[in-house]
Amino acid sequence: MIWLYTAAFLTGIFAAMGVGGGMILIVYLTVFAGYSQLSAQGINLIYFIPIALLSVIIHTKNRLIEWKKIIPSLIAGTVFSVVGAYAASYIGSEILGKIFGGFIFIIGIKELFSEKPEKEKAES
C-alpha cells in the first residue's frame, strides 16, 4: 500500500508543477501497478476530490472564482461525470485503455506542434 501513497505524493508534486498529475497517476497504476484502466480511473477520480476541494477553497479565498459563471459548468460536469462513469463500466478496460492511449497520443502531438502563446515566448 505504500506504493499507492508514494504515487499519490509524486502525482501531487507533478500536478503542482503544471503537469497533468491525474494522467501520470493513471499511467502509473495501469503500467506499473497492474490495475485495470477502469480501476485506475476510479482511483484517479477519488484522488482528485480532496485536491479539487482544496483548490476551490484557496481560489475562493483569493477571489479568483466567479461563482455565477461557474455554476453551469459545475452542473454539466457533475451530470457528464456520472454519465461517463456508467459508460466506462460498459465499454470495458481494454477498449477504455486504447481510447485513453489515443487521447494521450493526440495531446502529445498537439503539444509538439502547437505554437507557444506570445506571453510564453517573451518569458523564454
Please name the defining characteristics of this protein.
mainly alpha, 6 helices, 124 residues
Task: Describe what you observe in this structure.
By secondary structure, this protein is mainly alpha-helical. Helices cover 84% and strands 0% of the residues. The chain has helices spanning 2-16, 21-32, 37-61, 67-91, 93-113, 118-123. Helix 1 runs antiparallel to helix 2 and helix 2 (21-32) runs antiparallel to helix 3. The chain starts with a helix and ends with a helix. The mean pLDDT is 81.
Shape: globular
Low-confidence stretches: none
How many helices does DSSP assign?
6
Structural class, from secondary structure content?
Answer: mainly alpha
What is the rounded distance between the termini? 41 Å
Order of helices and strands: HHHHHH
Residues in β-strands, percent: under 5%
What value does the average pLDDT take? 81
**Portion in helices:** over 70%
Q: Tally the beta strands.
A: 0
Q: What composes the largest sheet?
A: none
Using only CA atoms, what is the Rg?
17 Å
Provide a brief overview of the structure.
The protein is mostly helical and 124 residues long. It is 84% helix and 0% strand. Helix 1 runs antiparallel to helix 2 (21-32) and helix 2 runs antiparallel to helix 3 (37-61).
